[in-house]
Amino acid sequence: xxxxxxxxxxxxxxxxxxxxxxxxxxxKSACIMRGFCRMMxxxxxxxxxxxxxxxxxxLWFPDHKVICDLSQISLYRIPQHxxxxxxxxxxxxxxxxxxxxxxLINQIINSCTVKINNxxxxxxxxxxxxxLDFKQNKSGFTESDxxxxxxxxxxxxxxxxxxxxxxxxxxxxxxxxxxxxxQRCQLKNWPPDYVLYSITNAGFHVVPKGxxxxxxxxxxxxxxxxxxxxxxxxxxxxxCQFLCYGMLKIYLKEVINTNENEACLCSYFMKTIVFWVIxxxxxxxxxxxxxxxxxxxxFKLLLSLxxxxxxxxxxxxxxxxxxxxxxxxxxxxxxxxLFGLYCMGSxxxxxxxxxxxxxxxxxxxxxxxxxxxxxxxxxxxxxxxxLFYEVGMRHYAISAKTFKxxxxxxxxxxxxxxxxxxxxxxxxxxxxxxxSLPKLSWFLLGHMEGNMSNRxxxxxxxxxxxMMRRATKIGCGSQVLSLAMLYYRTCNYEQSLQCCRKxxxxxxxxxxxxxxxxxxxxxxxxxxxxxxxMKKYPIKKIVLHHHYVYIDELALEQQxxxxxxxxxxxxxxxxxxxxxxxxxxxSLGDTVRSQQSIQDLHTLLLDDDGTHIQTQYKDISxxxxxxxxxxxxxxxxxLRSFKCSYQQTSRRHPIQKATIVRIxxxxxxxxxx
Length: 673
Known about the structure:
The protein is an alpha+beta fold. The protein is built from 28 helices and 13 strands. Strand 5 and strand 6 form a beta hairpin.
């Protein structure tokens, strides 16, 4: 089906979810060691990859336990656990107060408490203010922080998206107000019993959001969040249901919320509508051939809810989610808009450019054959690119920063290899291992102290090299380059050159994820297993973390980035490859080869159309050319290269300060010699 190209095929959606599942498990131990738990939620976690797909990350303290009634307090150890009791009396459905039942150890939470009738409660308003202040004062990779409902929204320049951080509390129990939901699900036979069991065992969260912006006395109100339950429900949908949900999200964005009226609907309402339709329409056939009818029923339910001014929460129906947003003139205007679309019949869906592109013939009742097999929609090339992209995104997710965290991470990876995993999950675990070993290798090398004995230094260096070699054997070309960098760092220039030659052989020009030539790719990968294709993973960039000095010649650039709260220096792989050729040959006294590598890099920078060096990486690429020229004594050429780097308008890295310093050094050396 055409919409699969926009929203994903069943296999693509499965890849997205399973890769994120592995990420969550692998990094869990490191997060807990730092005193918090982490869970991704939102549409990105559900398996969507739309431009508007949001990243929501929920964070909470694992030693703070929320209970629903006093009898549950005996389940926890005090004082290791801080127990918090939910109080829902005299509050709108779906909201609660959090009353402290045991002494607080955490000073952050302690600063958010208020006294009500001599009892201590956690203030939601103070709680989110404290975390907003924390994010604004914390040196990080974000450019802007702002409060957005219960979230602290930050912009992550590496993924070029806003991320909503939701600081909250978790409960392992099921809220009393949602107990009737269990009975309703059993009566309606949806979701299935095994899904229902998973949901109730997963518990819920409470997030710092009051019941109404107009209520000035809601500083201590918290909203009950069923994010984990919703995530499980969406994962249990069949693909037609998932497509219907995705099309509603698209229609909301492209049609409903583009009206001059204030956008008062959000995609959460669309998800709730799909839940209600699935549960209440037992005999509705959720199959591709019936997609338009399913979509139309959801739209009619939306119209009915707006007309009544009531959108019952799926888990706690007494919680009317339209209570504040869809009222008065806003409600009337929204109903008029939706009713006007309804009067157009199913052709109103053509108002969405995305839906029109794929369903024009179907909506106009022309003959249409629905193809349900994935092979008729997308080919194996797209599946591979989906897997490479999702796995590649996990590179930033390796959160270990201390030796103990690395050991826990590797133990988790080893333990997971004994689990029953899908083929995609096995490859993702394998990729985590490939990325973790080089990081641990650089970590060990960076923590060699000057007063260590020669024997201990040799031991650590040997361990570091062995881990990098292992990563090279099981990994892709980027691991070979990492080994070359490590050899250069330890003055093993011949071995570094051998790795560079090997990397050059396995890095054909098409092997870049942004612009992979499909025909050449399919020809090169013909007959290879998924695991072997993964070993030829498309090489994108070499990422240098601020924790370690990888190459002395780039220390100035890393320092400039760190001073500007940019903790990653990203270098196109071919640029790094040429740099290593230059530096190794120069260190060995091979002037001819080092000059040839400089010329090759210069030619690449002049001729590349963005295939190998994206525009935002031109700054660091010209900078590296200048460093190579300066190292080899070409001060005139290096000055031109540094100027080219400084003049780049589209840049990923704040390295202008480093460029100025290098120009000054260049002028000094030129005058001296």
